[in-house]
Every structure is written in structure tokens, then in C-alpha cells.
Amino acid sequence: MLSDLHSTVILFIILCFLHMPISLGQDDERYRSCGEPFQCGSMNIIYPFWGGRKPEYCGHPSFEIKCESSIPKIAIESTRYEVIDINTPNRIVTLARDDLLSSICLDNPENASFDLNTFSYVSSDLNITLYFGCTVRPGLQLPPSSPNRFNCNSSIFGIYTLINVPFNLSLVTCQEEIIARVNQTSAVALASPTASVEVLRRAIAGGFSVNWTAGIDSKCQQCRTSGGRCGSNPDSGDFACHCLNGTHSNYCNDGPNHLPGNLSSTNPHNLLLLESLEDKL
Ligand SMILES: *[C@@H]1O[C@H](CO)[C@@H](O)[C@H](O)[C@H]1NC(C)=O
Ligand SMILES: *[C@@H]1O[C@H](CO)[C@@H](O)[C@H](O)[C@H]1NC(C)=O
Ligand SMILES: *[C@@H]1O[C@H](CO)[C@@H](O)[C@H](O)[C@H]1NC(C)=O
Ligand SMILES: *[C@@H]1O[C@H](CO)[C@@H](O)[C@H](O)[C@H]1NC(C)=O
Ligand SMILES: *[C@@H]1O[C@H](CO)[C@@H](O)[C@H](O)[C@H]1NC(C)=O
Ligand SMILES: *[C@@H]1O[C@H](CO)[C@@H](O)[C@H](O)[C@H]1NC(C)=O
Ligand SMILES: *[C@@H]1O[C@H](CO)[C@@H](O)[C@H](O)[C@H]1NC(C)=O
Ligand SMILES: *[C@@H]1O[C@H](CO)[C@@H](O)[C@H](O)[C@H]1NC(C)=O
């Protein structure tokens, strides 16, 4: 008797939930929060990037920017970068490696990598190879002018090489090497016989560029034209267009709303569930 009353109360509560138009308020909230400006330093961050006051559903899941002391930072495949510039129309982001910015001599250097389904290297930049933990082989000597050598501490140094800037590597032994990228202007400066560790630091700070594949944001223009705000579906991560009347999968007038989850009372499946519950009462 008591437990019957108990389950009736629980059923009643469930019914109240199913009748609530849960998704409408939420969708409008997405439209509004994706319209919030997200400024970091002097950079105005827009789709496909998100972060700060813009939740993940306002961007592409792989494009989170964290604003640290007014400096925009991004982590890609576990390497952290300072974001130097974003060129949205050309889909290019210019990045500088955080680890090399804080110290030109790395103890445990790692090669950065990019998911080639998302990013490609911009072809105007050049590879440089950085060697760390180098010492001169016993009995040998470096040429008096070795601009591509940089000191790390009193006993070890580093070397950089790039195309047209060779170095006789059989003079030294080095612990580790990585490939990094610099822009063309920096590469020219690094090739100069008067280059110095300062030139190398500036080259790293100048960054290199990657472009994101067209597929990432190809649906955004049509969404904006229809009055929507570009973003992603919080469940699947796929593109989504957040409109005043809800979240759509492509643009605002592309048919019925794409409702989040399947909790809405307009979902036929929930209506069936509702009827069967009401039968029981
Ligand atoms: C951007 O990436 C595409 C491949 O997705 C490539 O074909 C194109 O050349 C790249 N653009 C630049 C400026 O490198
Ligand atoms: C430059 O480095 C990248 C990343 O290591 C590599 O994929 C690419 O093949 C290199 N390009 C050249 C011309 O060596
Ligand atoms: C120089 O740095 C290396 C690695 O960072 C370290 O093993 C070595 O002890 C340092 N030497 C001096 C003299 O500080
Ligand atoms: C590089 O250095 C080694 C050792 O001193 C020397 O035998 C060799 O000829 C040098 N190679 C070039 C290209 O200078
Ligand atoms: C970085 O990549 C280069 C070229 O692929 C390789 O020779 C080097 O060992 C790699 N460095 C590290 C630290 O994995
Ligand atoms: C290339 O890097 C240098 C730093 O060495 C920077 O001053 C310059 O603005 C960069 N050029 C481009 C086109 O990004
Ligand atoms: C949502 O609004 C757009 C106009 O902004 C309209 O074309 C579309 O039919 C509406 N969709 C629904 C499901 O109400
Ligand atoms: C929600 O319902 C639609 C059709 O009613 C279905 O295609 C979709 O897979 C459902 N999604 C979830 C997360 O159950």
C-alpha cells in the first residue's frame, strides 16, 4: 500500500519532467552564449575557436583557446602553443611553441605533431632542425664562427640547421634533435653569418602557420547567412547551427529543429513512453 503510493509519486515526478519543454530554453541559451565576444589580449576569438565565455558548443571541439594573462594558448596533440595570429577567411593559424618560447634549450624535447585530417603545414614556412645537449667531440674544434651554435650552459650547447645552413655534425655529439618550423623571413635571418641566439629566439617567437581543412568550417557561412551562430553539437561534436528557435544541423531553416538528446516531449518515442506511463496510473 505504502510502496504503491511511493511509486505513484515517482511516476508523477517523471511525468512532470517529460512534459517540460526542456530543449527550447537550452537552445536559445546556446544562440545567446555563442554571441558573447571572447577577446584575449587584442585577439577577437571566433568560430571555429572557442573558450573563455564561449562554451565548447560555440566552436569545433579541437579548437579550444585558453586565455592566459591575456595571451591566447592552444594545445594541439599535447603540444602547447601561443597563438600569434588567426586568419579566419584563409583558415590559417600562426603558432609558436610554448616550450621553446620559455627556454631555447630543452631537456626533453619532443617533435610536435598535427592530425593531418585537421591541419596542414603552410608551405611557405621552412623546417629547422634543433639539436640539444651537444658537446664537441674529443680532439676536435668548432670553426671559430659558428652562428648556428647556441649556448645552453657552460658545458653543453645546441645547434640549428636548415636548408642552405649546413653544419658539420660529425664535429659534435648531441643528445636529442627535433624539427621545428619558422617563417621565411626568420629563415633568411637564421641563415645570416651574423645570426645569434637572439635571432633564433625571434624566429621561434615569430611562429609558423598551419591551415585547418575546409571541412571544419565549410558549413559556417550558410549558418550565419540564415541568422544562426556556428558551433557544434555537444553530444556528437559535429557541426551545428545555433538559432533563435533552436539548434539545427546545418542552417536555421533546414527543417525541424535538431533537438539535443531525446528528452523532448515532441519526440514520438517519449510520447509513447508517456502514454504507457499514464496507462499504468
Ligand atoms: C591549406 O591546406 C590545404 C589542404 O587542406 C592545402 O591544399 C593548401 O595549399 C593549404 N594552404 C596554404 C596557404 O598552404
Ligand atoms: C618538415 O617537417 C615536417 C614535420 O616533421 C615533415 O612532415 C616534413 O616532411 C618536413 N619537410 C621537409 C621539406 O623536410
Ligand atoms: C648543463 O645542462 C645539462 C642538461 O640540462 C646538465 O645535465 C648539466 O649538469 C649542466 N651542466 C652545468 C655545468 O650546469
Ligand atoms: C667534418 O668534420 C670531420 C671531422 O673533423 C672531417 O673529417 C670532415 O671532413 C668534415 N666534413 C666536412 C664536409 O667539412
Ligand atoms: C623528431 O623527428 C626527427 C625526424 O623525424 C627524428 O630524427 C628525431 O629523432 C625526432 N626527435 C624526437 C625527440 O623524437
Ligand atoms: C616571421 O617571423 C618574424 C620573427 O622572426 C616576425 O617578425 C614576422 O612578422 C613573421 N612574418 C610573418 C609573415 O608572419
Ligand atoms: C526557425 O527559424 C527560421 C528562421 O530564422 C525558420 O525559417 C524556420 O522554419 C524555423 N524552424 C522551426 C522548426 O521553427
Ligand atoms: C534521437 O532520436 C533520433 C530520431 O528520433 C535518432 O536518430 C537518434 O539516434 C536519437 N539520439 C539518441 C542520442 O538517442
TrEMBL record:
Q: Is Glycoprotein set as a keyword in this record?
A: yes
**Which parts of the sequence belong to the Wall-associated receptor kinase C-terminal domain?**
170-245
Topology in membrane: Single-pass membrane protein
What InterPro entries does this protein map onto? Answer: WAK_assoc_C (IPR032872), WAK_GUB (IPR025287)
Look up the signal peptide feature and give its range.
Answer: 1-25
Reaction(s) the record says it catalyses: L-threonyl-[protein] + ATP = O-phospho-L-threonyl-[protein] + ADP + H(+); L-seryl-[protein] + ATP = O-phospho-L-seryl-[protein] + ADP + H(+)
**Keyword annotations of the record:** Glycoprotein, Signal
Give every Wall-associated receptor kinase galacturonan-binding domain span.
34-96
Alphabetical GO CC annotations of the entry are: membrane
GO MF annotation terms:
polysaccharide binding; protein serine/threonine kinase activity
Q: Where in the cell is it found?
A: Membrane
Write down the EC number. Answer: 2.7.11.1
- Location, primary (coarse class): membrane
Tell me yes or no: is Kinase among this UniProt entry's keywords. Answer: no
Give the protein's recorded name: non-specific serine/threonine protein kinase
